[in-house]
Structures
1.
Amino acid sequence: MPLQPSRTVAELRELRELTGDENGAQRVAWTDTWAKAREWLRAKVADTGAAESVDAAGNQWFTLGGGSDRAVLIGGHIDSVPNGGWLDGCLNVMAGVEVLRRIAADGAPPVTVRLVNWADEEGARFGRSLFGSSAAAGSMTDQAELRGRRDADGTALPDALAGQGVDLDRALDARSELDGAAAYLELHIEQGPVLESMQLPLGVVLGTFGVERHQVTYRGQAAHAGSTPMDKRRDALAGAAKLELEIREIAKRTGEGAVCTMGGVVTKPGIVTSVVETAECLLDQRHLDAARLASMLASAREASERFAAEEEIAVEWERIWNIEPILFDERLVELADESIREVAGPSHRLPSGPLHDAAEVARAGVPTVMVFVQSLRGLSHTKLEDTKEEHLELSVQALDRLAAKTIDLVAAQ
Amino acid sequence: MPLQPSRTVAELRELRELTGDENGAQRVAWTDTWAKAREWLRAKVADTGAAESVDAAGNQWFTLGGGSDRAVLIGGHIDSVPNGGWLDGCLNVMAGVEVLRRIAADGAPPVTVRLVNWADEEGARFGRSLFGSSAAAGSMTDQAELRGRRDADGTALPDALAGQGVDLDRALDARSELDGAAAYLELHIEQGPVLESMQLPLGVVLGTFGVERHQVTYRGQAAHAGSTPMDKRRDALAGAAKLELEIREIAKRTGEGAVCTMGGVVTKPGIVTSVVETAECLLDQRHLDAARLASMLASAREASERFAAEEEIAVEWERIWNIEPILFDERLVELADESIREVAGPSHRLPSGPLHDAAEVARAGVPTVMVFVQSLRGLSHTKLEDTKEEHLELSVQALDRLAAKTIDLVAAQ
């Protein structure tokens, strides 16, 4: 049975009908709609002969035994954010199903092939993303903290998980699933504008950005907007404004692939008759190279202090979150590049700004690569998320080629 | 009986005890505490022989008949904001009482002298400042709108006024109070840092600033902070940052007495993972010269549009409020300058950023001047508001000199 990429598009539409509404996809992890989607997926995979199992973290595995226990993994997530798009996460899963069908139809593969539907990639309900993949990767270290989390309705995380047969305390037992994993492949929509602006359907992902996230707070002095001369002011907003403009220069100087964002400023007292006393800025910096990320952070900090001195205000940095860059496997990047060139002509290598389950698997030492397919207008996490049908079909073909090449590579090792 | 400036300070402390608490002054207009303060004031003035009357807008007048119906007015306001300071408004009133005592003790003056305690200068309860003075000046044009206003407890403005014997529909009858007014004098704390920074106790006010107040809204495009390259962004915050820095240059270029303030920015969505889509900026510009104010506004608007074009974002201006500059009387400014030099050595001429009842009286065509006394740290509308006792005493002396000179001037006209 040859690959039928159009079937993937049809099945994605079927899933949308089954688990979405007029506001978009509603497959939030640990809900009944999510469980319904997993049930539907089980039925779709059944005819491939792949054996289903659910691990201790709730990840859903479909295993096609082969000539060796060494395994090539294809992974995605069927969960969505509330009012989500029709492709984020489930494209990977459904393309994987089609690839599994093709492989199964070709007879027993030389190595084991497994499709995994990770549990709760989005973290939409409890604010903890990459749940299932971080458990399998062994990098989940926050179980004690997770025990206390509740959703908006007050349901505790452990209770929601238990409702779907998952025991939070045992989630790390999922680590054994990566035993024997020789490669991990993931296809995802780009969720950004790069491929569309280059008029390319597909690209190879080099890795996921390292992220440095801080709250930068400037403190000046509230003063009457009418009675305080300009040279007597200590305006916290001036520090924030200079920093907002400077982080863009820092990103430009660092070169392609560097991004710095001031996502918000909160001004206090924030009234028209007063100079701003406090400006709380949210700063997000990302780069694929750890040294350059560290340098961008140092530059921003140095600049922020220079601006504080110029304005006679104080500045204070508080780290909100950070993560190291995670680089994908060079050999698999080459294979993905080849696969894309074969099905779509030109390819392009780009970093991923958003995190993905692939980053967790890569952190666990499994050679990993991702393929991105173009997103229209870069939109995601909204029902407006979309990708041209012809590009979706090309992406299924590229994943299939990549899987074939990777199976050959692993079989030859 | 000679002038006793120390008595004014003692009486201000007495008023603070009577109508304040641990959070500051509580003489909010149209409340029982305010009525109690007016009652206390009536008793203080009684021994001068000045006749009390309350006009149709609730203004409390004390009239000392003289050799002519032409009147020199001294005005202030005993109402305060909630948790207010011990000087804002009532310094003027109590200094006026002391001056009235001195004049009465000297025998019948050559012209009529009137002390006025304006009703509801602060507008703290219903958000409408300069109530009584704008009624007397005939510039109150918003009675229909005021009829619908309610305080935080839901009490309607007309009901609160009626509780103090004032009929909103008749408030403009107070206009007749300015018949025969030949000069208006007002002493006030500076509520700003200029005199303190110059180490001067007293200054002459040239007029009140014209004000242009706008909301300037930049609209760009929300985009993922990780997946959107720097050159693909349309960042609304960049427009706001450039404008914040540019308005300071505009004020500097305009020269002394120009102030421009961005009092707040609201960023949407305002999250760390997104480029800012909308930045709503509060812009306040003030100048004593109408043409320069208009020029500052035009410069800010032109710059804002240039920044929008540079950033490929949209900008929109909405006027919140504006008022023309109001210049005080040149002859009275000279007399105030002389009076200050006589009691305190050097003087200084400065504009007033905040509005005052004096501005309403000046708009009505009555020759007007104000004297400012130094504010410590520029603080006002807080219990921390303060002025050195020696400076308070000098201010009472200066007002007395100014009243004497003004009476002579009017008598000679």
Note: Chain A has a mean pLDDT of 95.
2.
Amino acid sequence: MPDEDAAAAAAGRQLTLTKPAGALGRLEELSVWMCAVQGQCPPTPFRHPALVIFAGDHGIARTASTSAYPPEVTAQMVANFVTGGAAANVLARQMGATVRVVDVSVDADAGYLDAIDPSVAARRIRRSCGSIDREDAMTLDETAAAIALGRALTHEEQSAGADLLIAGDMGIGNTTPAATLIGLLTGTDAATVTGRGTGIDDATLTRKASAVAAAMSRGAEALDDPTLLLARVGSPDIAAMTGYLAEASARGIPVILDGIVSCAAALVAERLSPGACDWWIAGHRSTEPAASAALTALSLDPLIDLGLRLGEGTGALLAIPLLTAAAGTLSEMATFDSAGVTDRDA
Amino acid sequence: MPDEDAAAAAAGRQLTLTKPAGALGRLEELSVWMCAVQGQCPPTPFRHPALVIFAGDHGIARTASTSAYPPEVTAQMVANFVTGGAAANVLARQMGATVRVVDVSVDADAGYLDAIDPSVAARRIRRSCGSIDREDAMTLDETAAAIALGRALTHEEQSAGADLLIAGDMGIGNTTPAATLIGLLTGTDAATVTGRGTGIDDATLTRKASAVAAAMSRGAEALDDPTLLLARVGSPDIAAMTGYLAEASARGIPVILDGIVSCAAALVAERLSPGACDWWIAGHRSTEPAASAALTALSLDPLIDLGLRLGEGTGALLAIPLLTAAAGTLSEMATFDSAGVTDRDA
């Protein structure tokens, strides 16, 4: 559990700083959360944010064409992450975050990254996954292996010094299983949780909503078993992300959630490890309706709302300066006493 | 006028980057604005943001007690800015912005800053100002001098290398003239534009709304003459800020607006220099209702909405990393061609 004493100390310290009580709005709440997850007051800015991007393909994208882009884009974008050209790379450089991309279930020939970084694909769970409107995404063994991979990645990032984790996603079609999981775990109907993803047209949206509805029917019986649920209507990449998020809270590492895919994994992780969400904040509000449904269910209010719908961890990365601002104001501002400023009760 | 060709080039370049069109949401709009105000595509991050804090006292705070804090806090906070202990100082350090505080009309004895930085008070227009519910804030000559001071400050900041300006405010009672100006210039009634400022109770809010209503009556005849309007129901600090903002657009320097006080000055500056608002973005949405009314009138949609109500430029400073992110993604991301990623039309 986050440290309640540190949180109380932070809330008390806020009242001594040279500003009207509450005038820094949600920055003050954020500073309290930082103290709680760091177990200290004042907090320090996070020095080693780490973004892990979970890449995978989805059978549903081929069978039902639920995306505006062809599946080969997943592998191409994995290469783009490795060479530093994606939006997440640019923002991570700005924010001082490391980027690691992991091929969990990309639909590409072995060796496709040999020329740039073969390690990225070395731990692949399987190639793509089943079309969840009609078949399971993967076996229970594969699901367990994917969750274990995610947990191992958390451990590895922590060992490398990470003090803040972000889960990014890359996978053509991945908003279909994400919407399915969120629909099931929040009790929201398929039409409501289905969004336009990369920017699909009306006909594709209708097809996608049907696929989500079919997948939700297939997953309904598995609601009480997170592993079975992921096997039926999830995907290897989302299962790995679930393990990563659950392990982060188990290890006391704070997390910034990103968009719909990380929100779906977060809902499942909260089922695996109730209370895990105390270690998380929501970086931004994606335009995907399912992301908002998930955040409401997790009682998380996003920090940024700028109409992003890219994934990759981009919306979470944008929130990092707000954490630095929250820590900085709580740590560095003068107090009424130290600055000789008259408080309202004087 | 901002550069339309650079803006068009930016919008075109966004379509070539390795992401679905529009997936970075308002970061894409921001990148287009940056290219327009910089006259180049791609843009560069702003390297020298400069915050000028306009400090002044307000007769209304003494006669009608419209604030939760006593007027002597203004001078105390000016000293706090000089010694670097205020929230704006902390955030400016984080964002790489310079901070300059100018005593435009503080109600303090001459020499109160002699021990730390007498230059801050060397250009004071007058000591405090009239209580605008019953008398003019200042003379027309004082108003002209205050506007000229603001214009000179813009010139000085530009000469010192500033490529982005922020107007911050400090002054117990300053939300009363700000709400009055915004009420008049947006045609909104006093009850709607009057907010809780530093956190006033219900009785003070009622008193403040009456003061705003009386001031709006006094100012109504001056609506078409910005200088007369400022003299009647503004204040020296807001007049200086108005000159600063008008001069920034005249010189082609972009601005991030902050909360209610900078929004009030911006509305007047737009009257002085129609079209000035093309050079501005809104950093955040203050909890003060008048700030939102002003932004709506200026057709500006704020970037951050975290419940801040501190002023000082804090909400504008928080938006700087979003500009850096907008410039970085447009400048540094790989294109579909360069990264060998398949576009949706392929």
Note: The longest strand of chain B covers residues 49-56.
